[in-house]
């Protein structure tokens, strides 16, 4: 599906039936697309720089946290690579929705770890991040069909 023909279930006052507002050709739709893209870039930067990088360079705070978890450096590097890949994939059109879902699942795990191991000290952070990730996954869901077609063509 192209970005201008993604289906929706209900028409709105500013968008005709069959067009998702965030992907419509109206001025409001263009602004929504730009805002969504900006959100994706901000989240990608957060995951790559603020979250993955400290793990991948073995910053003392990351090492300490993963040692306390009992996961050691293998767990730290694994989570760092997953966050790096997810952050980068948020910027690749065909992977945006899948990346947002995968990072959302990672944040569910982070929330559970924060609550059970670290007494909920930073439990709000993964919960806050789930909201924009869910928005991106939903708004870019039409790209999932493109990804499936691409994978079928490669098989």
UniProtKB/TrEMBL annotation:
Its main location: membrane. It is found in: Membrane. GO terms for cellular component: membrane. InterPro entries: DoxX. It holds the Pfam family DoxX_2. The chain crosses the membrane at residues 38-57, 69-91, 98-117, 123-139. Keywords: Membrane, Transmembrane, Transmembrane helix. It is a multi-pass membrane protein. This is DoxX family protein. The lineage of its organism: Bacteria, Bacillati, Actinomycetota, Actinomycetes, Kitasatosporales.
């Amino acid at each position: 599906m192209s970005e201008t023909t993604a289906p929706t279930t209900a028409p709105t006052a500013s968008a005709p039936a069959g067009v998702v507002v965030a992907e419509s050709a109206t001025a409001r739709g263009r602004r929504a697309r730009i805002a969504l893209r900006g959100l994706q870039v901000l989240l990608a930067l957060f995951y790559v720089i603020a979250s993955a990088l400290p793990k991948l360079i073995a910053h003392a705070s990351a090492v300490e946290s993963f040692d306390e978890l009992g996961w050691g450096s293998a767990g730290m590097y694994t989570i760092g690579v997953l966050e790096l890949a997810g952050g980068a994939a948020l910027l690749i059109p065909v992977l945006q929705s899948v990346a947002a879902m995968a990072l959302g699942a990672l944040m569910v795990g982070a929330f559970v770890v924060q609550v059970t191991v670290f007494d909920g000290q930073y439990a709000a952070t993964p919960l806050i991040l789930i909201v924009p990730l869910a928005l991106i996954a939903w708004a870019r869901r039409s790209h999932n069909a493109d990804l499936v077609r691409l994978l079928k063509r490669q098989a």
